[in-house]
């Protein structure tokens, strides 16, 4: 018997370089998050403390991403026939919820700090924020280089996190400078709320995108896709029609197609026409089609 090599999806990913980068980034981020947290307490800076929480959320996000990456390299088995790649989406969903929670807490803390102001140590705040800016630039460069080596969703997600951290570090430097020259302590609270809004928007986008994937939903216009498939010659009816995202880069489709009695002998051609339409117009490369014949299938 000849063993054929079909072009089916393997349902696992082996990306050693990305794994190495995540280990390094995780260690560096955890180290600096601790420094920033201690600095925020010592300087009484809410913005600096808020940014440390953001960094801790990055640590947890990187941890989930690393676990997902390790498991995604495992091949499918009898129980997990689709493998473990979906763990990347679960990790993103948890991370998104954490960002939402942290941002809401920081806004609440900002209101409390506004009602009960505290003195801020300008030198400590500026020093640690400057170190944070340099740190985030280095991590951003590392992650960008990693993406050139291996295309990985987790690395892309981490990169966007650290771009957000860059904005936070710049914001803290600006607020600490304003406080130094004007002594307007309220600027720290305003900047912390601004950072919280950035966190909330990022968390909302991540949570929404991962929720759509976990619910096996789609952002595509399914009514339009259905009508275009229905117009293909030889198709009498379409049912059990489904379109869903398996991750941010891949979309699947599945359907039962009832052929009319004049095109029964052209079943393979019709299936190929459906696949070509889905791939070329909607970017759907994975399509599952069950053909039905009114002579043999009860309708």
From TrEMBL:
<dbReference type="InterPro" id="IPR027470">
    <property type="entry name" value="Cation_efflux_CTD"/>
</dbReference>
<keyword id="KW-0812">Transmembrane</keyword>
<feature type="domain" description="Cation efflux protein transmembrane">
    <location>
        <begin position="23"/>
        <end position="215"/>
    </location>
</feature>
<protein>
    <submittedName>
        <fullName>Cation diffusion facilitator family transporter</fullName>
    </submittedName>
</protein>
<keyword id="KW-1133">Transmembrane helix</keyword>
<dbReference type="InterPro" id="IPR027469">
    <property type="entry name" value="Cation_efflux_TMD_sf"/>
</dbReference>
<keyword id="KW-0813">Transport</keyword>
<dbReference type="InterPro" id="IPR036837">
    <property type="entry name" value="Cation_efflux_CTD_sf"/>
</dbReference>
<dbReference type="InterPro" id="IPR002524">
    <property type="entry name" value="Cation_efflux"/>
</dbReference>
<dbReference type="Pfam" id="PF01545">
    <property type="entry name" value="Cation_efflux"/>
</dbReference>
<feature type="transmembrane region" description="Helical">
    <location>
        <begin position="159"/>
        <end position="180"/>
    </location>
</feature>
<comment type="similarity">
    <text>Belongs to the cation diffusion facilitator (CDF) transporter (TC 2.A.4) family. SLC30A subfamily.</text>
</comment>
<feature type="transmembrane region" description="Helical">
    <location>
        <begin position="53"/>
        <end position="72"/>
    </location>
</feature>
<keyword id="KW-0472">Membrane</keyword>
<feature type="transmembrane region" description="Helical">
    <location>
        <begin position="21"/>
        <end position="41"/>
    </location>
</feature>
<keyword id="KW-0406">Ion transport</keyword>
<feature type="transmembrane region" description="Helical">
    <location>
        <begin position="186"/>
        <end position="204"/>
    </location>
</feature>
<dbReference type="InterPro" id="IPR050681">
    <property type="entry name" value="CDF/SLC30A"/>
</dbReference>
<feature type="transmembrane region" description="Helical">
    <location>
        <begin position="84"/>
        <end position="107"/>
    </location>
</feature>
<dbReference type="InterPro" id="IPR058533">
    <property type="entry name" value="Cation_efflux_TM"/>
</dbReference>
<feature type="domain" description="Cation efflux protein cytoplasmic">
    <location>
        <begin position="221"/>
        <end position="292"/>
    </location>
</feature>
<feature type="transmembrane region" description="Helical">
    <location>
        <begin position="127"/>
        <end position="147"/>
    </location>
</feature>
<dbReference type="Pfam" id="PF16916">
    <property type="entry name" value="ZT_dimer"/>
</dbReference>
């Amino acid at each position: 018997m000849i063993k054929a090599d079909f072009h089916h999806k393997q349902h696992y990913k082996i990306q050693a370089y990305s794994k190495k980068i995540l280990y390094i980034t995780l260690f560096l981020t955890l180290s600096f998050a601790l420094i920033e947290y201690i600095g925020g307490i010592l300087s009484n800076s809410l913005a600096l403390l808020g940014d440390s929480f953001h960094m801790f959320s990055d640590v947890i996000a990187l941890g989930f991403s690393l676990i997902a990456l390790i498991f995604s390299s495992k091949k499918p088995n009898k129980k997990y026939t689709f493998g473990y790649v979906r763990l990347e989406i679960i990790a993103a969903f948890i991370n998104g919820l954490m960002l939402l929670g942290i941002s809401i807490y920081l806004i609440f803390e900002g209101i409390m700090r506004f009602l009960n102001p505290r003195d801020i140590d300008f030198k400590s705040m500026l020093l640690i924020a400057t170190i944070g800016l340099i740190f985030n630039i280095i991590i951003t460069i590392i992650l960008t280089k990693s993406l050139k080596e291996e295309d990985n969703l987790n690395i892309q997600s981490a990169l966007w996190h650290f771009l957000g951290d860059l904005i936070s570090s710049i914001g803290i430097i600006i607020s600490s400078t304003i406080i130094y020259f004007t002594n307007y302590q309220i600027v720290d609270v305003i900047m912390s709320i601004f950072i919280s809004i950035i966190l909330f928007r990022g968390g909302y986008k991540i949570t929404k995108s991962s929720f759509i994937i976990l619910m096996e939903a789609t952002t595509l216009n399914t009514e339009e896709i259905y009508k275009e498939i229905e117009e293909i010659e030889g198709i009498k009816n379409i049912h059990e029609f489904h379109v869903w995202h398996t991750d941010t880069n891949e979309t699947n489709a599945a359907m039962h197609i009832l052929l009319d009695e004049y095109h029964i002998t052209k079943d393979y051609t019709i299936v190929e026409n459906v696949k070509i339409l889905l791939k070329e117009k909607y970017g759907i490369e994975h399509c599952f089609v069950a053909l039905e014949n009114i002579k043999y299938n009860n309708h």
